[in-house]
């Protein structure tokens, strides 16, 4: 039988007959290649539907001819993960059914237009035994032995939980806050990549991972995504996701009820991954900080992943014990900045697609241009528009959107904070926000720091000592001289003036 004839007959019923390579020809038309790919994907998907969708939402199939399998990945992490844990199965299936040896050819493309996971459904594949590597893995790295597994059309049996004492209760996870639904752009790239690595998705794992950024920029989304991903990949891992506020409440309750032993065991022993949201709310709570410090040490020493989010950099955390601040900097501090226009457009598109909201023409762009503060507000605007349009039975077109946004005032520039200005200045000068609060006196960093101090002084009602503290605990006289220096450069140096005007435009003070 020729490859063509074979592929035309490649219905689920015979999809698992492993053809002998000698029977098959050496080439495959692109249509047959695509059919073979669809079958291979169906087989692979059946083995792990939940994680399949998550990972394959970041992969696009570009063609399969003459053994060359062309794939596109949203980023390097996705490529590596697929390569390590899915490609062996896919390639084995394709090799067995076409007789061709499989050569993957990858392209990295942040904007996939046909992700594999977007296909509505895959034909079921009958059971067959095939020798493949197990996936998803228990650990991100290490040599894995080939094992024999049986794939089946029936849903895979639920994972058998490891017998152990109950972990700490987990706060509810938003099912939509997955990596697949997170739009990656320059403003959140590092935090996203580090979160994927923390979840075991490849790349260097940092412990702890400290994610910081302004409100509504996706910190909680990333932490939920880590929890989903770990749960998916290592169902028996004991994940504790808790807000710092709830940690405080539980601690106080445990003290009152004299159940400290249980509380301690929950956070120090019965936990494989600790995710603590909004750590800044431990400010001033010295006893809880002490307790958290010991939990941190115990988990860190046993190599358990810790991820913490905060609205400030560790050095800027108020009323936080120095030893905790220093531990937060042991691993990686990854910041998230306000998304730039292209990312805002992509986020609106993604949300509209998730919520089945139809937007006409340039509406996406208009919303993204008008609502610039944070993602939560972008989302809120979209949901409000959709709700009102559906109540009035109107389409979400440009006229409707303009009117609604103007009426709701979502487009009005928000009151910026010191952190917003710092983030914006760093973005403008392509620095890391941490540089502004560091001791680094390199000329370009010092200049950006002075500009940021100047803008803060101009726009916010902060005193010089307050600003000194917000810029890495500097003396107020340093801030005074920085502000004076920028003032005088503004009138004498056109380049400095251009930088300031660009920044002020971004801060919404000119339009
Ligand atoms: P934070 O914890 O930083 O205050 P959240 O994680 O709660 O912010 O994010 C606010 C909202 O914006 C959530 O609904 C989240 O899903 C969404 N969001 C934030 N960043 C992104 C992103 N990059 N892609 C998609 N949605 C995002
Ligand atoms: Mg949050």
Task: Walk me through what this model shows.
With 511 residues, the protein is α/β, with parallel strands linked by helices. 48% of the residues lie in helices and 11% in strands. The chain is built from 20 helices and ten strands. Strands 7-8-9-6-10 form a five-stranded parallel β-sheet, sandwiched between helices. A three-stranded mixed β-sheet has the order 1-2-3. Helix 9 (286-301) links the parallel strand 8 and strand 9. Helix 18 (464-470) crosses helix 19. The radius of gyration is 26 Å and the shape is globular. It starts with a helix and ends in a 5-residue tail after the last helix. The structure holds adenosine-5'-diphosphate and magnesium ion (MG). Adenosine-5'-diphosphate is lined by residues 177, 181-183, 188, 213, 215-221, 347, 350, 375-376, 379. Adenosine-5'-diphosphate binds at residues 177, 181-183, 188, 213, 215-221, 347, 350, 375-376, 379.
Q: Gist?
A:
With 511 residues, this protein is α/β, with parallel strands linked by helices.
Topology:
Blueprint: H1 3-8, H2 30-47, H3 49-56, E1 59-65, E2 68-73, H4 76-98, E3 103-108, E4 128-132, E5 147-151, H5 189-198, E6 209-213, H6 219-233, E7 239-243, H7 244-256, H8 260-268, E8 273-277, H9 286-301, E9 305-310, H10 322-328, E10 332-336, H11 341-354, H12 363-370, H13 375-392, H14 398-408, H15 418-429, H16 433-437, H17 443-459, H18 464-470, H19 476-492, H20 494-506
Parallel strand pairs: 2-3, 6-9, 6-10, 7-8, 8-9
Antiparallel strand pairs: 1-2, 4-5
Bound molecules: adenosine-5'-diphosphate and magnesium ion.
